[in-house]
């Protein structure tokens, strides 16, 4: 016996003929992503943004667009007027094509950019007050240097009785003697940062040193600002207050307070160490709307300089994504070496030399991405040590499921012309692409493409006797499934029930509403972290650094469990995902997240060690990465059925350095988020 599907359209008659715009968007959004369509003449100017003839105006060329299954087109040039420029600050405006599903229209619009805001740590770089809980010793620290927790201190002008004590019995330099806290994001170049602390020395002549270290994206130390504080007498507390200027290319910074390498041996006490940013943030760009009622497609970004009265073509950046037959996106991809040791994933640029080239062509159809990379060596090139890798086009990562492999070919000119067939691996949920090639001409086993692993000529993969596997070209081609973020709360299909009977199964004349699929997110509203010293409500720690740094560390976090249960009541769980943002990991290659569950609804309901610790397979997260993690559907069922109220990280009983680090919590910037897809 045949059974009708719950929804079907479009048809000429019957229930499937009752098609509204909402139903249309439900299925047509799968045809292609939103963007600009290639016109019949395919001259490349469709909806292109250019500077207007006069004043703060822009012209938008004729052309069509496709926005979530709806079509719009301009047949002539449209002129848009921007708001007056700020007399003192630059601004970035965005030109968009906007589909309004409530007004049933598509228009061209200007999104006015926000004015520069004072650079405050609450935005992207929370200030930190360091006590012993947040500190780590440097990797190269001397065994004769210790860091201990000190309580019961009387510190003028402070509210804490906890401090860190650095005890040093050798005359060693700062890198060995200092204790450092984790890296923070740095303000923009040229802005001011301020370091404050309370410090004292225990031996006359033991100066207290301070440093502000700046690091680039590859975590390489760029520069330091430093000085000394002489507290005047043994045991006297002194206020340290110093400023620094962020250098060009700085991505991270951290504060250091320690004993200077002069004078007799002794100890240094320090507490209330605060590093904070000052100045203005660069002007931001307007956010694009994308929800159930409206979707905006970017066409161009317009730089409105301070006090400007007109625009030039140099002020406009093309933001269009064009779709159509034979239209490929292009960009200049990076080619990196990760450096040493293995797994560090530094982004050290491979210099392809004079006449070298890096090109990528790509075409995206739904979640399938067709890509073609070509890297060509010229002359006078230079390649750092480590594995060689690149990445997917901006904003894309591979799908979480499956093994994503592409075809690779390497032609090397060093040591004689040689061809090497290979493959390229895209790890699930990652933006990186890792080429693999045979170990040598006589060994077909494959390994990471490595120009130089630090062992000198002949040590790379593939191995070339007396030389390195470079010169010539590297190509990567194929297709990969990419991740597409689902909309939150997808629109349920409207219209009459899709059945062809005059009477419902219960004789009432109506059928029950059809089952529909939804996706809903809940942001964490409470979190707490524990170690052997106590608890805190900031970052969520896990793993074990050392006994002196708190032993096993573990955390719990919660969501609005009442809302979750009410929303999921009577539903069938389709998918459960959890977002976590790593802030620090012991190893630069990342951290293994230890995820479990907790029944109690908050930290007051049970002891800190109660919980279903480390229940699920551990998940690797790159250092500083924000990642959506797919968890078993049973977790959603437990939230629905009130047998789970929150989630745990770490464990009070296990964990080590591979698991050691911390994540944003409910009181930080990128809070944990639970996303559940369900049928109801």
Structural write-up:
The strands form 8 sheets. Strands 24, 25, 26, 27, 28, 29, 30, 31, 32, 33, 34 and 35 form a 12-stranded antiparallel sheet that branches. Strands 36, 37, 38, 39, 40, 41, 43, 45, 46, 47 and 48 form an 11-stranded antiparallel sheet that branches. The chain is built from 5 helices and 48 strands. α4 packs across α5 (633-640). The chain is mainly beta and 680 residues long.
Mean pLDDT: 78
Helix content: under 10%
**Terminal residue distance:** 25 Å
Overall number of strands: 48
Low-confidence stretches: 119-145, 168-181, 261-265, 484-513
Task: Furnish the topology, listing elements before pairings.
Layout (H helix, E strand, L loop, with lengths): L20 H8 L6 E3 L11 E3 L5 E4 L2 E5 L2 E5 L3 E4 L9 E10 L4 E7 L9 H4 L3 E3 L5 E2 L7 E7 L10 E7 L5 H4 L1 E2 L3 E2 L6 E10 L6 E8 L5 E9 L8 E8 L6 E8 L6 E12 L16 E11 L11 E3 L3 E2 L5 E3 L4 E2 L10 E2 L7 E9 L2 E9 L9 E6 L12 E9 L5 E9 L5 E9 L2 E6 L1 E3 L20 E9 L35 E7 L2 E6 L2 E3 L3 E5 L7 E7 L2 H8 L3 E14 L5 E3 L1 E4 L20 E3 L4 E6 L1 H8 L5 E5 L10 E3 L9 E7 L1
Helix pairs in contact: 4-5
Key features of this structure:
680 residues; mainly beta; globular; twelve-stranded antiparallel sheet; 48 strands; eleven-stranded antiparallel sheet
Short characterization:
This protein has 680 residues and is mostly beta strands. Strands 24, 25, 26, 27, 28, 29, 30, 31, 32, 33, 34 and 35 form a twelve-stranded antiparallel beta sheet that branches.
């Amino acid at each position: 016996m045949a059974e009708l599907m719950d929804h079907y359209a479009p048809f000429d008659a019957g229930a499937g003929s009752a098609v509204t715009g909402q139903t249309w968007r439900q299925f047509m959004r799968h045809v292609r992503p939103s963007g600009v369509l290639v016109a019949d003449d395919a001259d490349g100017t469709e909806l292109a943004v250019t500077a207007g003839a006069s004043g703060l105006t822009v012209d938008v060329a004729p052309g069509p667009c496709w926005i979530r299954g709806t079509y719009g087109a301009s047949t002539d040039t449209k002129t848009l007027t921007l708001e007056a420029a700020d007399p003192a600050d630059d601004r970035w405006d965005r030109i968009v094509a906007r589909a309004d599903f409530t007004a049933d229209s598509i228009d061209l619009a200007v999104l006015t950019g926000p004015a520069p805001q004072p650079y405050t740590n609450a935005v992207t770089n929370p200030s930190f007050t360091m006590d012993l809980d947040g500190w780590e010793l440097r990797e190269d620290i001397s065994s004769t240097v210790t860091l201990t927790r000190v309580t019961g201190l009387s510190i003028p002008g402070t509210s804490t009785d906890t401090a860190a004590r650095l005890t040093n019995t050798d005359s060693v330099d700062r890198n060995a003697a200092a204790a450092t806290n984790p890296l923070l994001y740095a303000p923009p170049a040229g802005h001011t940062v301020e370091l404050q602390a309370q410090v004292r020395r225990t031996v006359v002549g033991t100066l207290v040193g301070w440093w502000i270290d700046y690091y680039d994206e590859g975590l390489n130390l760029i520069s330091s600002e430093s000085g000394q504080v002489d507290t005047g007498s043994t045991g006297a507390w002194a206020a340290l207050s110093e400023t620094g200027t962020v250098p060009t290319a700085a991505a991270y910074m951290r504060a250091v307070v320690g004993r200077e390498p002069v004078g007799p041996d002794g100890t240094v006490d320090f507490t209330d160490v605060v590093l904070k940013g000052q100045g203005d943030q660069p002007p931001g760009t307007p956010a694009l709307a994308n929800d159930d009622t409206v979707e905006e497609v970017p066409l161009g970004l317009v730089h409105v300089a301070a006090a400007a009265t007109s625009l030039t073509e140099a002020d406009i950046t093309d933001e269009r994504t064009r779709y159509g037959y034979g239209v490929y996106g292009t960009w200049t991809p990076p080619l990196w070496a990760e450096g040493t040791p293995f797994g560090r994933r530094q982004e050290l640029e491979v210099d392809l030399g004079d006449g070298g080239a890096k090109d990528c062509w790509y075409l995206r159809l739904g979640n399938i991405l067709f890509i073609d990379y070509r890297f060509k060596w010229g002359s006078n090139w230079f390649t750092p040590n480590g594995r060689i890798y690149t990445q997917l086009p901006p904003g894309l990562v591979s799908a979480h499921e499956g093994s994503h492999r592409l075809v690779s070919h390497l032609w090397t000119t060093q040591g004689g012309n040689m061809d090497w067939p290979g493959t390229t691996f895209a790890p699930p949920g990652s933006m990186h692409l890792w080429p693999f090639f045979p170990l040598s001409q006589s060994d077909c086993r494959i390994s990471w493409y490595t120009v130089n692993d630090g062992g000198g000529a002949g040590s790379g993969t593939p191995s070339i006797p007396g030389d390195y596997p470079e010169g010539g070209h590297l190509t990567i081609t194929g297709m990969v499934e990419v991740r597409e973020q689902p909309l939150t709360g997808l629109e349920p299909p409207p219209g009459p029930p899709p059945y062809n009977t005059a009477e419902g199964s219960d004789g009432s004349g109506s059928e029950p509403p059809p089952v529909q699929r939804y996706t809903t997110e809940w942001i964490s509203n409470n979190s707490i972290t524990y170690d052997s010293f106590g608890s805190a409500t900031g970052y969520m720690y896990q793993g074990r650094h050392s006994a002196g740094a708190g032993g096993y560390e573990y955390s719990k976090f919660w969501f609005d469990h009442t809302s979750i249960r009410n929303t999921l009541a009577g539903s069938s769980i389709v998918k459960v995902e959890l977002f976590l943002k790593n802030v620090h990991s012991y190893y630069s290659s990342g951290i293994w997240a230890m995820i479990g569950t907790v029944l109690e609804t908050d930290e007051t309901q049970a002891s800190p060690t109660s919980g279903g610790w480390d229940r699920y397979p551990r998940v690797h997260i790159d250092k500083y990465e924000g990642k959506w993690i797919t968890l078993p559907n049973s977790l959603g069922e437990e939230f629905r059925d009130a047998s789970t109220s929150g989630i745990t990280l770490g464990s009070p009983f296990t964990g080590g350095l591979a698991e050691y680090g911390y994540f944003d919590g409910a009181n930080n910037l990128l809070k944990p988020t639970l996303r559940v897809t369900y049928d109801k």
